[in-house]
Amino acid sequence: MSVPSAAVGADDAPALPIRPGLAIVVLALLLSIQPVTTDLYLPALPALTRSLGAPVAAGQLTLSALLLAFGCSQLLWGPLSDRFGRRPVLLAGLLLYTLASVGSALAPTMALLVAWRTLQGVAMGAVVMCARAIVRDLYTPLAGARAMSKALTGLGLIACLCAPLGGLLTEWLGWRAALLVLTAYAAATLALIALRLPETLRQRNPQALRPATLARTWALVLRSPTFWAFSLQTTASYGGLFTFLAASSFVYIEVLGLSRTQYGLVLLSTAVAYLVGTLACRRLLARVGLRRTVAIAGALSGSGGLLMAMAALLGWHSVAALLPPFYLFMLGHGIHQPCGQSGAVGPFPQAAGVASALNGFMMMLAAFAIGFWLGHALDGTVWPLVRGVAFWSVLLALIAWTLVQRHGEPHA
After folding, report:
1. 75 membership: H or E segment, kind and range
2. What integer pLDDT is reported at residue 409 of this predicted model?
């Protein structure tokens, strides 16, 4: 599907009166709520599972249920933001997230923790979906990819802090302290949005919530090969990352014997690799264009997964053998996400909320399936982690080398 002429332009500046620097900071904070919600929490996952007397599968459900709610809720938040604007949806989502974070930190049982984390996922859907739609509101498609890479660089910096902080808080103060930090992050972001962010949607769609309009909009998006190419790219990339996030706390702590603090440093190192990938993304986009940039990222992703599998097959079951190949995957992830997320919404300036919601729903549906599988597959060895990352890595490389090359718009 071609990019509508109204969506193509050379102006990299935001289309509405908001300073470019502030726009990037806001986007970075909104997008970062996802790694903050997971990375701070992952070092605490084995501890809270034991503390609440629950099985491993129940502990995994606190993550997979959150992400399923995150994905599904975007299907509602997207049309709501197209109808009423990004700002009211963002404010409602951040307020709900703050309340759910308090409930999660105080939950006395695993069942209540799962319930609060599910509500947290619903709220997170509003925040991340609006962030992606705001990129389309403010920028042309190619400029959006550059802006997204800058925002995701900020996300990488925040993720670098989250991983060791989560481990240290869990070691010193317990797992509830790690979850309370989420409340502080959400409250601070809510204050910034309320005080500094204007409405970015230039023209609300009063018909956006009507069933017939929704059906036509969804059909428009889902008929686009460009949307499918970039959405499958982001889904496969997130699938590999989520496999690592959901399995690594058990594998690195329980199987490979790291402390929670050491595991936090492992997450920190992967976040640094991701950060480098986002920086490389901007340079590659300027030098070789979108399609070749994605092809290079596909090579990084595929080689990372295959090298990890090779190390495991050779019996090298250690941090030193399994972690460096994953750095290659994270370098690729730092390129795939800004290109894929901006590319998926690029063709739809008047339906960016719906396109962003469908893209997010696909990623989280994959994450829920992975979490369900890992809840039964974790067996006290490194193999569930290795097999999962290798599968998504190879699939991602194939998508990057075929679908994106065929259907990725040169101006996306």
Report:
1. helix 56-84
2. 65
Task: Identify the residue whose tokens are 């071609």.
Answer: 2
- Cβ neighbours around 173 below 10 Å, total: 11
Residue 63: what are its φ and ψ, rounded to 5°? -95, -45
* Spatial separation of the C-alpha atoms in residues 202 and 195, rounded to whole Å: 19
Please count the other Cβ atoms lying within 10 Å of the Cβ belonging to residue 348.
Answer: 25
How deeply is 238 buried, as exposed, middle or buried, from its count of CB atoms within 10 A (0-12, 13-18, 19+)? buried
Q: How far is CA 359 from the centre of its chain?
A: 11
C-alpha span between 81 and 218 (Å, rounded): 15
Distance between CA atoms of residues 24 and 274, nearest Å = 18
Phi-psi region of 174 (alpha: psi -120 to 50; beta: other; left: phi over 0): left
> Which one-letter amino acid corresponds to residue 31?
L
Beta carbons of 1 and 223 less than 8 angstroms apart: yes
CA 61 vs. chain centroid, Å, equals 18
pLDDT tens digit string along 175-197?
Answer: 888 888 999 999 999 999 999 99
Q: How far is CA 300 from CA 121, 234, 314, 340, in A?
A: 30, 15, 21, 16
In 233-373, DSSP assigns E strands to none
The identity of residue 82, as a single letter, is: D
Distance CA 396, CA 398 (A): 5
Q: Is 315 left (phi over 0), alpha (psi -120 to 50) or beta?
A: left
Token pair of 60 as six digits: 């995994």
Question: Tokens 């795939």 sit at which residue?
Answer: 336
Neighbours of 140 (CB within 10 A): 25
Contact criterion met (CB below 8 Å) for 71 and 125: yes
| Nearest C-alpha neighbor of 61 from the set 73, 72, 49 | 49
- What is the Cα–Cα distance from 267 to 162, expressed in whole angstroms? 9
In this predicted model, what pLDDT tens digit does every residue of 148-171 receive, in sequence order?
A: 888 888 888 887 888 788 878 888
Q: Is the Cβ–Cβ distance between 120 and 66 less than 8 Å?
A: yes
85 φ/ψ sector (left φ>0, alpha ψ -120 to 50, else beta)? left
Amino acid in the structure at residue 211:
P
List pLDDT tens digits, range 52-71.
Answer: 888 877 887 888 788 889 98
Mean pLDDT on 107-131: 94
The count of C-alpha atoms lying within 13 angstroms of the C-alpha of 247, restricted to the half-sphere facing its C-beta, is: 27
> What's the whole-model pTM score?
0.78
